[in-house]
Design goal:
The structure is a single chain. This protein is α+β, with helices and mostly antiparallel strands. The protein contains 2 helices and 9 strands; from the N terminus they run ββββββαβββα. A 6-stranded antiparallel beta sheet has the order 4-5-6-9-8-7. Strand 8 and strand 9 form a beta hairpin. The chain starts with 9 loop residues before the first strand and ends in a 10-residue tail after the last helix.
Length: about 190
């Protein structure tokens, strides 16, 4: 009938053993933690889609010591796309500094921002940044290095954070996290 039955995205990192393809879309529409946000994104094949146990984490995709989370929050004010882009572009360093300071706690320390930039996620401006740090597991009395990639999107009067984290270094997961985030779709903008 000339229609695409299923789109497959492949990823292979030549510098590591990683090779993933994306599976079907996972939607957060109507989820009790979505705060009314309608978006969908694709989870890599062989990763588990799990309900998260924290109040603002809507879903998480898990594979070995790696996870990708969708986090929602309420903003104090409404941001248009142009206002969000202007805020990110004009205040990027201050925002990154405040966010990295906010990440420091008894479980996460030694935050080091590696890179940050303003990008677009399905026509919405986003602040993307990579950082490393030290994760403390008090139950196991163990400290572990981690790599994290985050995107912050202001979606009208809501905030959305897409966060990929790997225990250890990036180990090629940086590109997997980008592949997942590039699959994000906000369907309402395509409705006539």
């Amino acid at each position: 009938s000339g229609e695409v039955a299923k789109m497959v995205t492949l990823f292979h990192d030549k510098d590591s053993e990683l090779s993933f393809s994306l599976g079907d879309f996972v939607s957060i529409k109507g989820h009790k933690k979505s705060k009314g946000i309608d978006l969908k994104l694709r989870c890599p094949v062989d990763w588990k889609v799990e309900e998260a146990d924290r109040p603002n984490i809507v879903k998480k995709f898990v594979y070995k010591k790696t996870s990708f989370m969708i986090i929602t929050s309420e903003n104090e004010t409404f941001f248009s796309r142009s206002e969000a882009k202007e805020l990110f572009e004009n205040n990027k360093e201050e925002l990154i500094s405040n966010m990295s300071e906010g990440l420091e706690n008894e479980n996460m320390s030694n935050i080091n921002v590696l890179e940050s930039k303003v990008v677009s996620i399905d026509n919405y401006p986003a602040l993307e940044f990579d950082f490393t740090g030290l994760l403390t597991n008090s139950v196991l009395d163990k400290k572990m290095n981690f790599f994290c990639k985050q995107w912050i999107v202001f979606y009208e009067d809501k905030g959305i954070t897409f966060m990929g984290m790997n225990i250890g270094n990036s180990d090629g997961y940086n590109n997997v996290f980008k592949m997942i985030c590039n699959s994000v779709v906000f369907p309402e903008q395509y409705i006539d």
